[in-house]
Each structure stands twice: as structure tokens, then as C-alpha cells.
Amino acid sequence: MPSQVAKEIEKLREEIRRHEYRYYVLDDPEISDRQFDLLMERLQELEAEHPKLITPDSPSQRVGGQPAAEFPQVRHSTPMMSLDNTYSVDELRDFDRRVRELSGREQVDYVTELKLDGLSMALTYEHGVLTHGVTRGDGVRGEDVTPNLRTIRSLPLRIEPAKLRVWNSPESFEVRGEVIMGRKAFEQLNAQREAAGEPKFANPRNSAAGSIRLLDSRIVAQRKLDIFLYFALVNGVPPLAEHSKVLDSLAAIGFKVNPHRKLCHSFDEVLEYIQEWETKRDQLDYETDGIVIKVNDTRLWRELGWTAKSPRWAVAFKYPARQATTVVKDIRAQVGRTGTLTPVADLEPVDVGGVTVSHATLHNMDEVERLGVKIGDTILLQRAGEVIPQVVKVTKRAPDGRAFEMPKRCPVCGGEVFRAEGEVAYRCMNKACPAQLKESLRHFAARHAMDIDGLGDALVDQLVETKLVRDVADLYTLTADQLEALERMGEKSAANLIGEIERSRTADLARAIYGIGIPFVGERTAQVLAEHFGSLANLERATEAELDEVNEIGEKTASGIAEFFREPRNLKVMEKLKEQLKIPAAERKKPKGAGPLAGKIIVLTGTLPTYSREDAKRMIEDAGGRVTGSVSKKTDYVVAGEEAGSKLEKAKSLGVKVIDEKALLSLVE
Ligand code: IVH
User: For 296-314, how does the pLDDT look when each residue is reduced to its tens digit (9 = 90+)?
Assistant: First the structure.
């Protein structure tokens, strides 16, 4: 028996590894998330039935069991050095001159790479299997955070021997690289933390560093970390004579290597590369604070050697920080779409790396207190990529600095301001607050929502103030005449806007769900909800439990959505919207919430007499049910076939109803 199962398990693992590689490393998936989940569930199921066959390099083992008590300290095989930083072209020329003098060569080839702003890590593979992942620490010793590194899906847990032939098939080797968190993942994480009343991370680097040092790898697994490799050591030295080839070979072996790299045959090419990326780096999803320049010939590395701290064959060019100091003229509370009052600093306008900045968000009262910022103070501002400017710190206190206090009443409508127990945010409790309505309209019309071009800030203000619009649905009853009567509105622009509003009636469902502005529902979540529920009406009807069941939707989001649709005011707007919109029916990935097995959780075990497992699963899902891999108290039915194993036992011990294929068929019919 086991050999057959062992074969199936190994086949599944190979398939899963291939799809992980395509998805997380190449960003080019071949199958849907759903199909991937099915493969993983099948593997977990087989492994649960045959725990002896579980190996640490199985893709199911990315998330370990118990949290660690602490991380063991480990000595690095070769010290992890840092790089010398240069800030000017002159300093860089000095570096090039030194390299040429020391090597006795007239011209040296360099590899330029992005300097990734994360934290470096040394990974050891023994017999092709990842065994240790260690932080840089003090360069000599670091912390062994292997369980956390394993959760990074782009990192292969094992390497096929054939792939290692480029390096002469070493028994063990080490690779080094940078663990990072993308900007999107960082912003998502911070939004969640804010909603949960937890302190936010200052930047993606800090949040990557904080995440990799969490003791519970199950939390790390949710943090969407990534890793780029840029260095390899076989028997303590680079495995190939050229660094550019080492990078190519790392990629060929299956590691994620940053695609933005270049082999430069002259120093001028290095300078061009630096110039090229100064602005282009803003378009990346991760932060880059400079360019790393490495001598391509790795045999030269030993000749050039090291100083006490860093190698002489590599250097980092750091882009000038986009920072500036300026004075805080005022701090005021801005009311957002959900009624949250956000402290915003009005600044003496200042140029920060080419952009004039006159406001900066202070996020919340905790942040105001953390910074200790008062009106009149001089502060240090920082801009990174496309994210809004951040206040780094107070650099000079004004002697007569005035502290900001959160107003007791909403600055827009005078409504009561309230801070819920355990929440960071202060909110205006008046649901009819015009500021909230204005923000809702702006959000509804935004490019990624209903994309209503021409509905600018000034117009939104007028529409709300003249009471022409009392909720988002009112936009659809506006007439050209009404618009023309407003300030700065000509016949043409009124007609254009009416055209845009008309066009938006047929926007797709995901945009509409996003545009409505449900708490915690961003673009991605809206997409998931659209695919799952297929219509606004279905989404509105969904219970909290049904929402919670949707893949990717967490408990908090589920309860946020359910609460939103309990509010009578929102329901009234929804009624009006449903009348106005003509949203084309969305294709539902999983018909759920309908059918005879709606909301039922079912576990399959053993071999069914006529249906294959896949077919049984499809049948259940088509009937609205959900198939999961393991039996718990939440399970409604266990469908048992022949040779049903531990799951059947578990079902019995938990008192879960056990049925056979025939009974399943009659349930479905
Ligand atoms: S090579 C011996 N390449 O920058 C030097 N480092 O200041 C090995 N870093 O500790 C490092 N991107 O954390 C290298 N493409 C890159 C890098 C990079 C970021 C970090 C790394 C290192 C620090 C040095």
C-alpha cells in the first residue's frame, strides 16, 4: 500500500513545487489558485493519512507547528560582510580606480544590481534540501530563523540534483540574499494593523525585519515576504568564475533572482545604469535605496580582498535620500469616508526629491504622540517611492509649540466624536456627515472604482452642499440641467459628466463592490467577493459565516461586511444602487450560498464506489458545499468510501455525521 501512496505523494509534491515556482518566482502561473489549492489539499490529506511519509521539504511543510521559544544563535560559515556606501560619482570613480590599480587591469567588468532594502540572510542547502536560514546578526553570528524562511513561497525547499550540475553537484552549498516585503503587502499589513488597533510599521524594511523575527511561523506565513538571492558559496567560494554567471545559474536552479541586473563592460555603463534606475525604481513594488556594483570576475575577489568591514570588490551607491525639513504650520483633523478623523499636518511647502509637499498625514493620535510633534515644530519629512510623505521625526521644537488635540466634535458637521474601546481611531458618529459623503463619492468615482472621469473635488463639494446628492446612488439621477446650474460647469462638461456616469452603470461587479466602500474591502477583496457571489444582491444577503468561508476573506473582513449590510442606511442606498446599475452578471468561480449543500462543510475519505475524488468534490461544490481536508467540529458530513482511515475515526470521535456515496447523491439531488 505505502509504495503506491508514496508515489502519488511524490508526484503531487513535484507538481506543487513546479506551480509554486511558476507563480512565486516567474510570476507566470499555469493553473488557477483554486486548482493549486486542490493539489495542496490532496497532498495534505494523503500526508495526514500517512504521517510517516511527511518530509521537511514537502511543500505542505512551509508552515510549521508550534511557535519557537527563541531562535538559536548560529555562526556563519563565512562572515557576512556589509558593503561600503558611496554617495557620489567621484567616490565611485575612486572605487573603480582602486580596483584597477590593485588588480593591475586597465579595464574591469562590473555587474550592477539593485540594492534591495530588506535584510540579508544566509541559507544552507544540504543534499539539495534547505536546512538553515540565518540572519546577518553581527556578521559573525546570526539567528537561525529557518522555520520562518520556509514560509516564503518563492524560496525552494529542495533543489533537484540535475539542476546543481552547473555547480559540479556539491553536497552542500550556501546562498545569500535579501528578504523583502513589497509595498503592496506592506500597505495591506499596515491597514490591517490599523484596523486592529495595533501599531503600524514605519516602512517595508522594518516590517520585513519584524516579521522574519516572529516566533510563530504561522503568522510569518501570512506576511507575504519574498526573497531575492544574489550570492552563492560552494566550499566557501563562488561556484563560477563570473558573478553574472553565478546570478544566471541561481535563477536556472530555481531561486528568485532580481531580473534588474546588468553586466557592464565599462565604468560609463555603470553610471548609466545608476542614472536609469534613479527614477525607474519608483515603479517597482519593492524599495531600492541604491545600486550595488560588483566586480564580475570572481577570481579577482580573492586578490582584491577585504577591509575589516567590507569587500574591496563591491560597493553600494546610495541614492540621495528624499528628505527635507520644514515647519508644521497647523495640525487639523480630516474626516474620511468611514468617519475616521485623521490628524494631518499642514506644512510650509518644501521640495522633497523633486516633489513639492505641503501636507503630511500623521495617521492617528498614537503617531502624533510617538513623534511628539506640535504646531510650530520643525520636522524631517521623507518620501519613498510613490507612497505619501512620512514625518520621520521632530528636528527642532518650537519654544511655544502648540499641542494638537483631537476635537470633541466633528470639524465638518459638529457631530459627536468617539473613540471605541481598544481602537486607535477617533470617529465622527454622524452617518449623514457631509465630509463622509464627500469622501464616499470621491472613492466611488475613483479610477479603480467606478472610474467616473470629471467628478473632481470641487464638483463633489458643490453636489453635496447643494444637496443634489445625498448618497452615491443619487449620482445616477442627476440631469445635465442640474449640473449646468453649478459653478464652473459648462454645457459641454455637464454633458461629458452625464456620459461618464451613464457609462459607469455597466461597470463590472468588482469595481462596484470596491466603490461602495465597505470597511476592509480593498480592490483585491472586492475581486474575490465578485467572483464568489456573482451579484450585489448575493453579497448583500451573505451571512457572516458564509463570508468567513470565502477563501482569502478573514474573520474581521467578514464581520465588517456583514455589519455594513446590517446598517439600514446602507441598505437603502443599496436598494437605490441596484435599481440604477446595470452590472453585467459576473462569472462565479464557485457557486456558493445556493444549492442543496449551501454552507455545508464536507470531508471526503477513502475510495468511493463510483465517483473519483475530483468528481465528488466538483459535485459537492456545484451544489454549494465546500470540501475540506480535515475533520473538525465544523464539519457537517464525512463521506466515507472503502479503506477510510483516520478521518473516519476522527469523525466518529467528534460525533460528525458519516455518510456514503449514495447518501451524498441523494443530498445533492
Ligand atoms: S551583496 C559582501 N547585493 O546591502 C557583500 N547586498 O550594505 C554581500 N543588499 O548586507 C552583499 N541588495 O543586506 C548585495 N544586490 C545586493 C544587495 C545587497 C541589498 C544589502 C545586504 C547587505 C547590505 C550591504
Answer: 999 999 999 998 889 999 9
Q: Which atom of ligand 1 is nearest to the CA of 316?
A: 7
Specify the CATH superfamily of domain 323-396. Nucleic acid-binding proteins (2.40.50.140)
Catalytically annotated residue among 11, 115, 245, 396 = 115
- Give the distance (Å) from ligand 1 centre to CA of residue 125: 20
Does 386 score more than 60 pLDDT? no
CA dist 34 and 19 (Å) reads 12
Is 115 considered catalytic here?
yes
Q: Which CATH class is domain 2-61?
A: mainly alpha
d(CA 647, CA 606): 9
Distance 2 CA to ligand 1 centre (A): 46
- Residue 584 DSSP one-character state: P
What's the length of the chain? 669
What's the gap in Å between 85 CA and the centre of ligand 1? 11
d(C-alpha 67, C-alpha 235), whole Å: 33
Q: What average pLDDT does the segment 235-253 reach?
A: 96
Asked if pLDDT for residue 385 goes beyond 70, the answer is no
Bridge partner list, 154: none
**Which residue's CA lies nearest to atom 6 of ligand 1?**
115
Q: Say which residues have a Cβ less than 8 Å from residue 21's Cβ, sequence separation at least 6.
A: 156, 254
Cell 508515489 sits at which residue?
7
Task: Kindly list the protein residues whose Cβ atom lies closer than 6 A to any atom of ligand 1.
Answer: 81-83, 113, 115-116, 120, 136, 178, 230-231, 292, 311, 314, 316
Ligand 1: which of 116, 123, 315, 318 to mutate, judged by most atoms within 8 Å of the beta carbon? 116
Question: pLDDT tens digit string along 171-183?
Answer: 999 999 999 999 9
Atom of ligand 1 lying closest to residue 118 CA: 13
* 3-state class (DSSP) for residue 92: helix
| Predicted local distance difference test score (pLDDT) of residue 384 | 66
> Is the model's pTM score more than 0.85?
no
In the chain, where are the structural domains located? 2-61, 81-318, 323-396, 429-580, 601-668
Q: Report residue 613 as a C-alpha cell.
A: 475524488
- pLDDT of 558: 87
Give distance in angstroms: CA of 614 to centre of ligand 1. Answer: 47
| Residue 119 alpha carbon, nearest atom of ligand 1 | 13
Closest by alpha carbon to 76, among 144, 149, 11, 129? 144
pLDDT at position 195 over 90: no
State the distance from the centre of ligand 1 to the C-alpha of 137, rounded, in angstroms.
14
Residues 6+ apart with CB under 8 A from 445: 451, 452, 455, 460, 475, 515
Query: Does 3.30.470.30 match the CATH number of domain 81-318?
Result: yes
pLDDT single digits (tens) 418-455: 987 777 889 888 877 999 999 999 999 998 899 999 99
Which atom of ligand 1 is nearest the CA belonging to 261?
15
Measured by CA distance, the residue closest to atom 23 of ligand 1 is 82
For residue 592, pLDDT over 50 is answered with no
Place of cell 508550534: 66
Is a pLDDT exceeding 60 seen at residue 1? no
- CA–CA dist 563, 571 (Å, integer): 11
Cα–Cα distances in angstroms (integers) from residue 249 to residues 121, 178, 301, 487, in the given order: 19, 17, 19, 64
pLDDT, one tens digit per residue, over 510-550 is 999 999 988 888 887 898 899 899 999 999 999 988 888 78
State the fold for domain 601-668: Rossmann fold (3.40.50)
